[in-house]
Amino acid sequence: MEVKATAKFVRCTPRKVNQVLALIRNKKAEKAFEVLSFLPKSAAAVVKKVLKSAIANAGKMKDCSDVKVKEAWVGSGPILKRMMPGSRGKSRPIKRRTSHLTIVVSDMDTVTKKARKAK
Q1: How far apart are CA 72 and CA 5, in angstroms?
Q2: pLDDT of residue 91
Q3: What pTM value is reported for the model?
Q4: How far is 34 from 21, CA to CA, in rounded Å?
Q5: Which band of pLDDT confidence, cut at 50, 70 and 90, is reported for residue 108?
Q6: Rounded Cα gap, residues 63 and 66, in angstroms
């Protein structure tokens, strides 16, 4: 069974979030939590929260040993445009980027069954 969780309008750039998501793709949930706990990036806290929500949506919060991160992707959200004063009375643009991230988890049973059918 596949279940997904999303977080929208996250105040972190998609490029930075994607670096964190690349570390947890196709891993067991326990291993993903372990990686995210010791990762010194600000996006790791947001990704950990969404992963926890996806596992809770699956109804497997008590036993996450048989849950695997099947897919994880990030898209760009709206850009907040701000201005910063520059030299000689000019203004300089600042773009504060946001992200929409999605994590899909599935049971290990369904993943192994699909792998067997492919063979």
Answers
A1: 10
A2: 96
A3: 0.84
A4: 13
A5: confident
A6: 7
